[in-house]
Amino acid sequence: MSRPALPDDTELRDRVHGLDLDSKLRLLTGADLWRLPVEPRLGLSAVTMSDGPQGVRGTGDDPAETGLLAPAPSALAAAWDTDLAERLGELFATEARRKGVDVVLAPVVNLQRTPVAGRHFEYFSEDPLLTGTLAAAVVRGLQSRGVAACLKHFVANDSETDRTRYRARLDERTLREVYLAPFEQVLSEAEPWSVMAAYSGLDDGTESAPMTENARLLREVLKGEWAFSGPVVSDWAATRSTVASAVGGLDLVMPGPDGPWGDALAAAVRAGEVDERLVDDKVLRLLRLARHVGRLDEPGPAPVPAQPAEEEFRLLREVAARGTVLLRNQEDLLPLTPDGIRSVALIGPNAVAPYLQGGGSAYVPAVRTVSFEEGLRAALPEDVRLTVHRGGDARLRLPYASAELLADPDTRERGVRADHLDADGNRIGGEVRATGDWTTYDGFGSKTRRVLLRTVLILTEPGTHRLEFGCSGRFSVHVDGEEVLAGDDGRGVELVLESSHNHPPLRGIDVEVGPEGRRLALALDLTVVDAGGYGRFVTAQLRHAPPGPTPYEEIAEAAAAAQAADLAVVVVGTNEEVESEGWDRTGLDLPGHQNDLVRKVIAANPRTIVVVNAGAPVLLPWADEAPALLWAWLPGQEAGHALADVLLGRSEPSGRLPWTLPARAEDVPVPDARPLDGIVDYTEGVHVGHRAWDRAGLVPAFPFGHGLGWARWTYESVTFSPAPVSAVLPSPAGGDGLNLTVALANTGPWAGREVVQVYLEPPQDGSDRPVRLLAGFAAVQAAPGARVTAEVHVPARTFQIWDSQARAWLTPPGRYRLHVGRSSRDPRLTAEVTVDDGRLHPAV
């Protein structure tokens, strides 16, 4: 039996008009943290959303729920592969359906404007074209299987410091050419079904407003000029007004059920401050979204297998390996051949504790994780001896107190006792947990006002022990009856938005323990924090480090192990303290003593491979000394298998840097994004990322687009011809412009994949334009000795600039050069084009 046709917009409008005002307004605020309201009269069932840039976390209804953990978006971007990105989007859709999710809050198309941005790992690239191209592929993959993408964060929300309060100030040309560009490209090429308005605000010289109220961008540009037909969703708890946000273009307040709309918006409509036709339009947009994802007049989406399949694990492994960037490979140390290798020393803080995903809303509790040690042990021959050495801890925060050290003071069994107290201090519930990490959301009754944690810390090892305590909101911490820490922060949802609820400031004390041991009575009195739509919570952390070797002693031990081994693999990088939503980094140095560790190991063993496990740039002052250097990103759950595949030549590390790696901190064009008087000034204009490096003539450690792989490539020739204008609305990144044909040959002994990159050098005699900008790219594969051709499309938009007075795109006349090569700083071929009357001609 055929399925009934879905309602068209005319029918949907009729349904909307049949509802009373209060019923319509009820649909415009979330039903809870992740779900939208149900309305049977419209045929509308619940639409469910979930965070998703590195996977699909789900709604958290089941605390034990796990999911697929993909490599971070910057790792995917490093593959420069739209087919791979689309396949990953399809996998996200399958995972979403597995979890009952209809809308994945991804992809993130903000730009890596500064390398210290806390969510840098969550963004694709510093380049708008690369970002837009790959994000569009992810959206196509997601939505091809009936799951909506939510493109975010619209717009210029490129840093975390004071992210809910600052306004980005930039001129309209910069806004159009750089920061709106990836949004426009994704909307044109992939038609995402929803868009998220950012926490921050924007001042483009014409309108200055929070993004949830910015009518110029939401109504005029997004919905008007670009004809976006879906709902604009607020970032969670971002909406702080009623009338201004309603008339500004916002369609859905999240989370719910509370918020600034509801009764207040009903009163505004009845008072004539908000036209009811705007309300109808918002409801219509939500119904379109529900129609797309099968939640309107349908029994619901088709079921998918309840558990991930092995092929899904293989795709995550492929993404991690393909995105790995080979930065250096002296004397072809890589790929390894196991012959002659009898011992391997795996060294580094990230070798022991890999950093697989960034903190914040990207977090996914992984269905499984494969450590670097596990991956190498599985891949190396059984007779190869593998030893593991930390070489010092790179974390500033101590590990959580072990359950073996904690005793319930009432029963003497392991754990921390929590007493739930009402407003009068009466006990109304409780629980015991065997952990020093205590974060609870709504795990207590609505009458609970305080949670009192009590435990006895049993220390037996003689020496100096270090304790750290961290809590959120209002609290006090007592050790043996003496107060050691207290807080009086009465804020609510702000603690969540700035991530201090899971990353609280710590207070440490030293405890001396003699041969007889020592017992400490700990009491943490926590006031429940009301975070609105995020629920009510308490946060407490008890951390502990026993006496142990110093970092320098660990480094010496690791260097000795490297000297005794046939091969050393050093894994260094960042961790959850460094890269996370909620805060920006304070610098680019590797945390801890990792630079000393790398230098000592390289000196001890000339066959040393250094692997960088980080999502965002870090300074590598020893880079020129490393025999082989790999950038492995935040690689997700299959990290160990992917690294083993690369080291042993089973997969080529065919990644290319999607951003510029600085050699010195003082060279970074935008060293921070700290607001000054609430404003972040984008003074660099259109010169973002590699464009700024070119403008300043500075030499980075490794340039944008760099990556070696296994093969060696000779670029032989380039020809071009005008691309036909599309009969449909052309994409800003396609549909017209030029088509380039590049001939190249693999002259090396290994098969390989090459990313052919084209950079446009515009004339510099008019408007302030980049020295070079990425104009297009394409990938080819070839066996040793084989010749191939790459077809690269250069869109007409690449030649254009935004004229703010004419409010139109213009193509300045003059001579343009097209540089074809292996990175932004490695051109191999050049072609020239003349622009006359807006038309492109071969230069003569």
Provide a quick synopsis of the model.
The chain is of the alpha/beta class and 844 residues long. 22% of the residues lie in helices and 26% in strands.
What summary fits the major beta sheet?
7 strands, antiparallel
Radius of gyration, Cα only, in angstroms? 28 Å
Tally the beta strands. 37
Classification by helices and strands: alpha/beta
Shape by Cα distribution:
globular
Helix count? 19
Q: Averaging pLDDT over every residue, what do you get?
A: 94
Residue share in helix? 10-25%
Q: How far do the termini sit from each other?
A: 64 Å
% residues in beta strands: 25-35%
Low-pLDDT windows of residues: none
Would you mind describing this structure in some detail?
- The chain is of the alpha/beta class and about 850 residues long.
- About 20% of the residues lie in helices and about 25% in strands.
- α12 packs across α18 and α16 runs parallel beside α17.
- The longest helix is centred in the N-terminal third of the chain and has 17 residues.
- The protein is globular and about 85 Å long.
- The N and C termini lie far apart (about 65 Å).
- The mean pLDDT is about 95.
Summarize the topology.
Blueprint: H1 9-17, H2 21-26, E1 49-51, H3 73-78, H4 82-98, E2 103-105, H5 128-143, E3 148-154, E4 167-169, H6 172-179, H7 181-190, E5 194-197, E6 201-203, E7 208-210, H8 215-225, E8 232-234, H9 243-248, H10 262-270, H11 276-292, H12 310-323, E9 325-329, E10 343-347, H13 349-352, H14 372-379, E11 385-389, E12 406-407, E13 416-421, E14 427-433, E15 437-441, E16 450-459, E17 463-471, E18 474-479, E19 482-488, H15 493-497, E20 506-513, E21 518-527, E22 529-530, E23 536-545, H16 551-564, E24 567-573, H17 594-604, E25 608-613, E26 628-631, H18 639-647, E27 679-681, H19 690-696, E28 713-723, E29 737-746, E30 752-761, E31 773-782, E32 787-794, E33 801-803, E34 808-810, E35 814-821, E36 827-836, E37 839-842
Parallel strand pairs: 1-2, 2-3, 3-5, 4-6, 4-27, 5-8, 10-11, 10-24, 24-25, 25-26
Antiparallel strand pairs: 6-7, 9-26, 12-16, 13-14, 13-16, 15-23, 16-21, 17-20, 17-23, 18-19, 18-21, 22-23, 28-29, 29-32, 30-31, 30-35, 33-34, 35-36, 36-37
